[in-house]
Amino acid sequence: MFRRVFFVFLLWCVTVYYSYRMMGVDPENCTPDEYDYWGIKWGEAAVRLAGIKIEADMGDVDPEGHYVFIGNHQSNLDIPVLFEVLKKNRIRFVAKKSLFEIPIYGKALAHSGHICVDRENRRAAMKSLNEAVEKAKSGISPFIFPEGTRNMNLKELMEFKVGGMIIALKSGLPVVPIVMTNTGRIMGKGQFVIDNRPVVRVKALPVIDPSEYTIKDREKFKDDLYEMMNAAYQELLAEDA
């Protein structure tokens, strides 16, 4: 009961601690493992604090492979869950500008290489997409939430935005669609008390070769991806019915 009620406060404390530790890392003079270390440790700590159980089916995904990941978004818990499941894939999240403006945490996000997108400024947004492509080519695996925000309707995925498709197609990396269920049931948007009884299910769909699409096909890519991911999401939901 203590964990369920005070989880958000405990997570805030842990986040501040690991943010400070991350800020002490010099990206220019460290190994990739050292650069990734504190983000992974934060994810592990958050999952332990929440007391959640994760069942992951990663299919043919190389646990140390270099990809663009695209997933659905229901909860703030999605981030630590994905750090836990993809800890060796060097993931960095494409996130809204407001998160980078949070004291301490926002600076740590930028310092650790996550990608800021200003949705209110088209020119800045395009610059961010190009930055994401360059980071992808340098060895980082971008993780994109194409719904753009946490989905409060847990029955189906929200409509996808096209920006993430541009990153995926321009990077040239294999694309891994990922669907998750139950993080929204455990702690949905606007909730401050968790219910950690549901099992978080994570499923990687077959890897997509982006060369099957051109940048002009980004709308088709978006629609195909949505259809595939929403169908897989419905199948996962049925497992809990």
Characteristic terms for this protein:
alpha/beta; 241 residues; 14% strand
Overview of the structural elements:
This protein is an alpha/beta fold and 241 residues long. The chain has a single domain, classed as 3-Layer(aba) Sandwich (Glycerol-3-phosphate (1)-acyltransferase). Helices cover 46% and strands 14% of the residues. It contains 9 helices and 7 strands, in the order ααββαβααβαβαβαβα. It has helices spanning 2-23, 32-50, 78-85, 97-100, 105-111, 122-137, 163-171, 183-186, 218-240, and strands at 54-57, 68-71, 91-96, 115-117, 141-144, 175-181, 200-204. Strands 1-7-6-2-5-3-4 form a 7-stranded mixed sheet, with helices on both faces. Helix 1 packs antiparallel against helix 2. The relative contact order is 0.17. The model has no long low-confidence stretch (mean pLDDT 92).
Fold topology:
Layout: H1 2-23, H2 32-50, E1 54-57, E2 68-71, H3 78-85, E3 91-96, H4 97-100, H5 105-111, E4 115-117, H6 122-137, E5 141-144, H7 163-171, E6 175-181, H8 183-186, E7 200-204, H9 218-240
Parallel strand pairs: 1-7, 2-5, 2-6, 3-4, 3-5
Antiparallel strand pairs: 6-7
